Amino acid sequence: MGGASGGPTGGGGTGPGAGPEAGPGSGGGTGQGAPARQDGSAGPGVSTGPGVSTGPGGPSRPGAPSRTATATGGPPRRGSVARALGGARSPVDLTPADLEKRRGVRRMKSFALGLLLFVAVVYALATWLEHRGAGAWTGYVAAAAEAGMVGALADWFAVTALFRHPLGLPIPHTAIIPQKKDQLGAALGGFVGENFLSGDVVRDRLRGIGIGHRLGEWLAEPAHADRVTAEAATALRGALTVLRDSDVQAVVGEAITRRAKNAEVAPSLGRLLERLVADGGHRKLVDLVCVHAHDWLVTHRDSVMEAVQGGAPGWTPRFVDKRIGERVYKELLRFVTEMRDMPDHPARGAVDRFLADFAGDLQADGPTRARVERLKNDILGRAEVQDLIATVWGTVRGMMVAAAEDERSELRLRARTALLALGSRLSADDRLRAKVDGWVEGAAVYVVSTYRTEITSLITDTVAGWDAEHTSRKIEANIGRDLQFIRINGTVVGSLAGLVIYTVSHALGA
Questions:
Q1: Closest CA to 142 of 507, 509, 506, 510
Q2: Which of 110, 308, 397, 503 suits a disulfide with 325, CB 3.0-4.6 Å?
Q3: CA-CA distances (angstroms) from residue 34 to 12, 71, 72?
Q4: 8 A C-beta contact, residue 133 and residue 488
């Protein structure tokens, strides 16, 4: 049970703690220039942190290459000098918290090693005293110490085999975590999928939480409503900023044009016109036309006279043309004036009948509907109309961005009011709260049921992408301290078991 050698190295042996697991004693190297052990383990001793070598020359500074690597000219260990030189961190590289945990692991390894050395010394002394005839008690002590050494070594082997090959020997079923990393990841993913992403589990958990009630109480607070409104405004502003105006304008313009071309507008226009005529809504437009027609006639008397005289035959005298023009102008002005001032003027009734007939033709007359469709397509095909459609997005975008940036804008105030009202309703309305709970539960169950494989594959693929050595180090940093108690307990329990067995055997033999 002497100190296990750290194995042959290129420039000298490794002492206690030379690798991740050092031998129970100190031993010199057994070969000059022999290859170094691949995994760096030497025995059940003290592990070192990344980039720390504790060979015969004492510990070197963290981050420096190990003595073995220096002597053999090999590359520095990953995770030490590589990181010190600014190399990219592994996805599972050791964090400062992990390094602190590794120091705790090393302390526990030192204690376990010290306990092993203690029982080894006790065994040697007891055996020596027994041979010197010191008394029967030495046999009990030697048996307890011997069994303690066996238990300590056995548990050291078991603990070490989880993370690396003990003594660097490729013993089957050792270095379990590095070699079975992918299988462990798949098993973990399957475990999470079966036990955490089950529809029943998710539904029961959400039902116990009471999402609707909690959401209602949370939204009912003005500060929370302000926060949600601000976050939503920020998200909206960001989304509108990211979108390219040209792309959105093209999409909006194409959508509006395509929908307008596919939809027949004549029947809808006919129904609208029919309702306007029935309600008398068109009369204001007729009044407006009459007023403008009267004003135009008053202002452009000479234009009317020139038009009438210009259309007269060339053989008529000019004074006759002038008298006819004046007569036509006066009658036209009188007609427009009477139509403007008399709501029951016969011409107004004629306009009503015309509009009613036209509304019916728009809905039922095929040729009229076809002419309207051709007119619609001609209008949509004009560049001016397409430019107008394209500017719709710019106008809407500017309004939404301005409203999102202004805390007192109507949009944000209405959103805040709606959130507060929703929170109050959720807190007081059991039916609404039950609906919200049902929606949330249904959505969550749908997600976990439909995308369970994709979710668990995140675990599996992430673990598969980890470096085996780094994964082993990280896991050891987190659970290694507790595992050292297995070694300590193995030493204690082994000693007690050896004492009991020796006592029983001695008693039966007597």
A1: 506
A2: 308
A3: 9, 11, 9
A4: no
Alpha-carbon radius of gyration of the chain: 47
Q: How far is CA 75 from the centre of its chain?
A: 39
pTM check: above 0.70: no
Which pLDDT score, from 0 to 100, does residue 52 have?
A: 38
- The single-letter DSSP state of residue 166 is G
For helices 211-219 and 430-450, what crossing angle results, to 10°? 120
User: Per-residue pLDDT for 269 more than 60?
Assistant: yes
Cβ-in-10-Å burial (0-12, 13-18, 19+) of 62 comes to middle
Task: Supply 183's token pair.
Answer: 């299988």
| Rounded-to-integer distance, Cα 504 and Cα 68, Å | 50
CA distance 47 to 128: 32
CA dihedral 168, 172, 177, 181 (to 10 degrees): 120
Domain boundaries, the chain: 54-178+467-509, 259-381
- Please identify which residue in the block is written with the tokens 């529809």: 199
Q: What is the SS3 assignment for 58?
A: strand
CA-CA distance, 166 to 179, in Å (whole number)? 14
Residues 6+ apart with CB under 8 A from 34: 8, 9, 10
Q: One-letter amino acid identity for 48?
A: T
Backbone phi and psi for residue 58, each to the nearest 5 degrees, phi listed first = 90, 170
Size (the chain), residues: 510
CB count in 10 Å sphere of residue 49: 20
Do residues 189 and 457 touch, judged by C-beta distance below 8 A? yes
Position 92 confidence tier, pLDDT thresholds 50, 70, 90: low
For 432-488, write each residue's pLDDT tens digit.
999 999 999 999 999 988 998 888 888 888 888 888 888 888 888 888 889 999 999
Nearest-10 crossing angle of helices 410-428, 430-450: 100
Burial class (CB in 10 A: 0-12, 13-18, 19+), 145: buried
The Cα–Cα gap between 186 and 36 comes to 34
Instruction: Judge contact between 149 and 124, C-beta under 8 A.
Output: no
The contacts of residue 110 (CB under 8 Å, 6+ apart) are 46
Q: Residue 345: helix, strand or coil by DSSP? A: coil
Q: Is the pLDDT of residue 309 over 80?
A: no
Q: Which among 27, 72, 269, 377 has a CA at the least distance from the CA of 167? A: 27
User: Tokens 């050792």 appear where?
Assistant: 174
